[in-house]
Amino acid sequence: MSRASKCCEYCKSQDKYSPTAFTIDHVQPQSLNGTSDADNLAYACFLCNRLKSNKSNVFDPITEKWFPLFSPRQDTWNEHFAWSEDATQIIGLTAIGRCTVKELRLNREKLVEYRQCIISFGMHPPDS
Ligand SMILES: [Zn+2]
Predict the structure, then answer these.
(1) In which band, very low, low, confident or very high, does the pLDDT at 128 lie, cut at 50, 70 and 90?
(2) pTM score, two decimals?
(3) Ligand 1 (ion): which residues have CB within 5 A?
């Protein structure tokens, strides 16, 4: 939780504004032999964890290749994602970022509404 600055390591939602408890995600799913060691765990909101499920690779229809989902333990968020100018949308900068935005629906309607709401209080985007 502290390593993630209390934010979902995928969508960057802040746990203090979430009505649901955040979860611990196995970056490499346990069903694919992922361990419960700290270097395989990520702090994630409930929906990102649920949408990620046991996936580790996703198919990119643009390049027609398989790419790994973003790994908070191996990848750097700012290298794969950026905020839109108004900070309500996450933009995938790379194939990994693009596939992760799509698969985890990082711009789901309620997330965008949440971002719009806390922007008005100067509380978004979180420091990274
Ligand atoms: Zn999330």
Answers:
(1) low
(2) 0.94
(3) 8, 10-11, 45, 48
